Amino acid sequence: MPSHDVIVAGAGPAGSSAARAAALGGASVALLEREAEVAQSVRTSGVTWMDAIREFGIPRECYHPVRTYSMFSPRNEVVVRDSAARAAVLDVRRTYRRLASRAVEAGAELHAGTPAKGPILEGGAVRGVRTARAEFRARVTVDATGFHSAVARGAGLVAPWRRFGVGAEWEAHAEGAEEDEWWLMVGSEYSPAGYAWVFPLGGDMVRIGVGIAKPESGEDPAARLARLLERRPGPLARLGRVETTEYHYGIIPNGGASRKTVHDGLLLAGDTAGQANPIVLEGIRHAIRYGESAGREAARAAASGDASARAMRGYEKSWRREIASRIRAASRVQDRWLDLDDAAWDAELDAIRGLSADEFLDFVRGDFGPGYIARMAAAHPRLAARQLGRLVAGALSGPR
Ligand SMILES: Cc1cc2nc3c(=O)[nH]c(=O)nc-3n(C[C@H](O)[C@H](O)[C@H](O)COP(=O)(O)OP(=O)(O)OC[C@H]3O[C@@H](n4cnc5c(N)ncnc54)[C@H](O)[C@@H]3O)c2cc1C
To answer: Staple partner for 126: which of 67, 71, 171, 266, CB 3.0–4.6 Å?
Structure first.
């Protein structure tokens, strides 16, 4: 007999959102988290968007708004200013814990310090997970264990991600930090394949980090971050004393929407499902949104008594309809972006200078909806003629 209708493995944003939605859908739910506390370690920079914050009801004490977006290449710099904050940096620990406590308020049981060791398999279907101390049997399991994909990999349903991004970051007091401005830094000095960042948290607090794409570069982002803090190239020279307080390190899949996310008895959500925006490897909003969808589908399937892949296929169909083509286009942009050399980046920043805040943020968010290129070409012929414009156009016109 199943102990629960739905087991969710992983209490990140996808898992907590799935657990809450499943409990609200009437299912008995257990949410298993490997760490002793939810968000004990932070593995993300936490930038997200004000529209997502409103959509998910994230309270004011959980984020710091941003309305100035600066981008630096080796010999160029562009500042995009907005009248209102469209982006925000989350207090990640507080937000992730809030999402988990909302799941508990909705009726889910939270089992922290309980890593899922692997799936319970019966006749090829997933019927829950094994932990060191117990078996959690369920009609539907949601794998929301992020990069590790502990349940789906244990069941042999997915291969390890071959492409991924690794990031290292310090939270720090930094003299001279701008309170409502982020800095993105591109070019070989900042990252051999990726970018570096400074994100404001309010007052003199910032997150300073480096992301590096794998397998494109073998370098460890921790070493590059230490070097940047020592040498202080570009805008980092504007910072005075930097006093580091907390270290973050994380891995995010960069394989796009390549995985099948519905199997007999099992749904994949969040990073496990490859749902992040590849342009800047930003996945929190999609993890919450499609974690909720997975939880709703799981509750519905558990109630109907049919948790086959066929019965739950609506989940995969609906998230793919909403974001799969954008993820594919953004992946192609990112591939080409990784090939730009320092001189090409210097030239691209001139073109970005003409963008409105909306246009710039649509690009960063990978929101290449229908007509994006036509609108951009009409408004910014200079941009459309440049590589950045060409690479977006190429990405959008490539095979789906
Ligand atoms: C360096 C870096 C910077 C990033 N910056 C941003 C950003 O600025 N904005 C943004 O939107 N996204 C960012 N991302 C991506 C973002 O962090 C992820 O897309 C998002 O956290 C995905 O949520 P998730 O719930 O799918 O997975 P995760 O957040 O990885 O959560 C997975 C959870 O499962 C738990 N778990 C793992 N294995 C097991 C197991 N066997 N059993 C039980 N529990 C387990 C983990 O402890 C964790 O709590 C960044 C990623 C990295 C690596």
So the answer is: 266
